[in-house]
Write a structure and sequence with these properties.
By secondary structure, the protein is mainly β. Helices cover about 0% and strands about 60% of the residues. The strands form three sheets. A twelve-stranded antiparallel barrel has the order 2-4-5-6-7-8-10-11-12-13-14-15. Strands 16, 17, 18, 19 and 20 form a five-stranded antiparallel beta sheet that branches. A two-stranded antiparallel sheet has the order 1-9. The relative contact order is 0.16.
Length: about 325
C-alpha cells in the first residue's frame, strides 16, 4: 500500500556529545501548509552514521509538486468516521490522513483516498511521531487496520520500526541544511482479504531528514515492495507556512534591514525565541524576543546566516546577510 508515507518531523539541537535531540516531531498546527517538489526516484538514501554529508543537489525535478494542508476533522466530509482524530493532513492528490496528536506523540487513526476509493481505519492506532526523540533512538510498535477497497474488505496487521540512524549536513537543490537528523521507518504489513483469505505482504521503507527550523521533513525517500512490484518516490520540501492566529499585519513576524550591518530590527507578534546560525549550524545569537526591538550584530562576522523565529508551533525561517 503506497499511501503510508507518515513522517516524524525533527528539530535537531547539538549537545556536547554530538547527540541530536528532536522536540517537535510532526508538531503541526491547523492552518500549516507544506509544498514538496517531486523528483526522479533514482536517488539512494546512503549509509547510516554520525557527521555525514548527503549531497542531493543533483536531484532531477519532475513536473509535479504536492501540497499538504493541516485542517480540522470537522472541515472534511469523512471527519465523523474517525472520531478520535483531532488533525487531518489533506493532500492535493485527494488523500486525507486522520491523526490523533497530543503533546508528546502522534497516532495514525484513519486514511481516506477519494480517488481510488480506499478507506482505512486503525483499530489499533499506528504511532508515528514521538516528542522528543534523539539520534540513536530505536522503537518498535504494532498496529491493526480495517481496509475497504472497491468490493474488497481486508484486515491488516503491521510492525513498525523507527530508528534515528544518522545525522550531518543535507545538501538539496534549494539550500544546504547543517545539523540534520535522518530517520529510517520500516513497516512490515500483512493484509488478509476476508472473502478469499488471500494474504498480501508489503514492506515499506522510508527515509526522512529534518532540521530544527522546520516541523516538516526536508527530504523524503520512500520505497514500497509489494506483490505488484517496487514503487519509489523522492521529494523535498520547498515551502512551509504556518498560519498566524490574527490576520492583521501587526501579527506577522518581520525583521529589517536585510542585508544588515551592525543592527537588526525585529517585530515579534508573540513571545518567542530568535536564533541566528551560520552555515555550519553554529549558533551566533539566541535571544527571547517580543514586540519591536533592536538587536546588535556588531560582534557577528560578515556572511550568510539562517534566522529562525519560533513561538510555540509558529515558525519563521529566512536567510540573513550581514555586511559591516
Amino acid at each position: 500500500m503506497k499511501f503510508r508515507l507518515f513522517l516524524i518531523a525533527l528539530c535537531a539541537v547539538s549537545s556536547a556529545n554530538a547527540q541530536l535531540t528532536i522536540h517537535h516531531c510532526e508538531d503541526f498546527s491547523i492552518g500549516t501548509t507544506l509544498r514538496f517538489q517531486q523528483c526522479d526516484p533514482a536517488a539512494l538514501a546512503g549509509p547510516a552514521g554520525a557527521a555525514l554529508t548527503w549531497d542531493f543537489t543533483g536531484l532531477t525535478p519532475l513536473a509535479d509538486t504536492t501540497t499538504e494542508w493541516m485542517v480540522s476533522p470537522s472541515a472534511t466530509t469523512a471527519g465523523s468516521l474517525f472520531p478520535t482524530a483531532n488533525l487531518v493532513e489533506k493532500y492535493s492528490n485527494g488523500t486525507f490522513v486522520y491523526v490523533h496528536t497530543n503533546a508528546d506523540s502522534s497516532f495514525l487513526v484513519g486514511y481516506l483516498d477519494t480517488v481510488n476509493s480506499i478507506n482505512i481505519s486503525y483499530s489499533k492506532p499506528n504511532l508515528f511521531a514521538l516528542r522528543p526523540i534523539s539520534y540513536g533512538t530505536s522503537t518498535l510498535g504494532t498496529y491493526l487496520t480495517d481496509v475497504t477497497f472497491s468490493s474488497f474488505h481486508l484486515h491488516g496487521s503491521g510492525i513498525d520500526t523507527l530508528a534515528a540512524d544518522a545525522y550531518g549536513t543535507l545538501k538539496l537543490p534549494n539550500g544546504t541544511y547543517p545539523n540534520t537528523l535522518r530517520l529510517k521507518i520500516t513497516q512490515a504489513e500483512n493484509d488478509t482479504e476476508l472473502t478469499s483469505r488471500t494474504v498480501t505482504v508489503t514492506t515499506m521503507v522510508t527515509y526522512v531528514w529534518f532540521d530544527d527550523s522546520h516541523t516538516s521533513a526536508l527530504l523524503k525517500i520512500d520505497s514500497t515492495n509489494s506483490p505488484g512490484g517496487i514503487q519509489k518516490t523522492v521529494q523535498y520540501l520547498i515551502d512551509e507556512t504556518t498560519a498566524v492566529p490574527s490576520t492583521s499585519l501587526a501579527s506577522t513576524f518581520s525583521c529589517y534591514p536585510n542585508p544588515a550591518s551592525d543592527q537588526l530590527w525585529v517585530n515579534a507578534p508573540r513571545p518567542g525565541t530568535l536564533c541566528i546560525t551560520n552555515t555550519l549550524g553554529q549558533i551566533v545569537l539566541n535571544k527571547q524576543v517580543l514586540g519591536n526591538q533592536s538587536l546588535s550584530l556588531a560582534l557577528i562576522p560578515p556572511g550568510i546566516y539562517y534566522l529562525n523565529y519560533r513561538s510555540g508551533t509558529i515558525v519563521r525561517t529566512q536567510t540573513l546577510v550581514i555586511r559591516h
